[in-house]
Amino acid sequence: MAQQKSALQSGSSPGAAQGGLSVGERAAARSFITRDLDLVAQFYDSSQEWRRLFSELLGTFLLVLVAAGGGVVNAVSHGQISRTAAVIAPGLMVLAMILFMGAVGGAHLNPAVSLGFALRRDFPWGRVPGYIAAQLVGATAACLVLRAMFGNVGQLGATVPGPGISMWQATLIEALLTFGLLSTILGTASGAQNVGTLSAIAVGAYIALAGLWASPISGASMNPARTFGPALVGGTWTDFWTYVVGPLAGALFAVGVAWLLRGSGGDVAARRAAQGATAT
């Protein structure tokens, strides 16, 4: 005991056999704890909220500009945009947005994602309404830009059930697709298997994959904001509730499965991913 007390006072290691830490290891541990405490403080710094909301607005604007823009440009160019390109582009945009400004506000870009993070206790419920409002405004602004540039063509990229697809079939597909999306997001953001920037690749790849096989059925929206923008600006409300009920049901299912796989959320790594750190 005297040896350990002397070692701690002198700043030297009492030795590996004693289970002590070297000076460098203690310094690294203090740095890690200090950094995490700073990040937690930033999570709850209300003065930075405008940056988070702006990042959600901008990110959703760019996502919907690409996602809805594929249908618009395809109509304008008389079929020059292939379905493959139209469904891969949103996945690549989400990947870019997460890498570009995910550290600012979490890059949710989707009401279902915001609700999923809140249900997992990774995101404050008080911020959910602001995030969803910013996402809806961003999606609407993107469609207003598309309409101003090209007119009300291609239904402004509206997501609607495919020919011969019933509303319940489209709703079920949207629920399943969103379940997979939220499972990917919550899994790669958790402290159990946080993969850092590689999560952007996982999420972007999932969005592209979901679109490749399911876009003819429902449009593979997985995002109420993405559907809301074209519906509001273009007036295409066909089966709109499919794209609200389906994604929200899928998000709830994903949160339940995340609890079964990893227990309750709320760890530091997940909060960092969900809320961002504006000073980084």
TrEMBL record:
PROSITE patterns: MIP. Gene3D superfamilies: Glycerol uptake facilitator protein. It comes from the Bacteria. GO terms for cellular component: membrane. Residues 1-20 are annotated as: Disordered. It is a multi-pass membrane protein. Keywords: Membrane, Transmembrane, Transmembrane helix, Transport. GO terms for molecular function: channel activity. The chain crosses the membrane at residues 57-76, 88-109, 130-150, 165-186, 198-220, 240-261. Residues 1-16 have a biased composition (Low complexity). It is found in: Membrane. Belongs to the MIP/aquaporin (TC 1.A.8) family. This is Aquaporin Z. The lineage of its organism: Bacteria, Bacillati, Actinomycetota, Actinomycetes, Micrococcales.
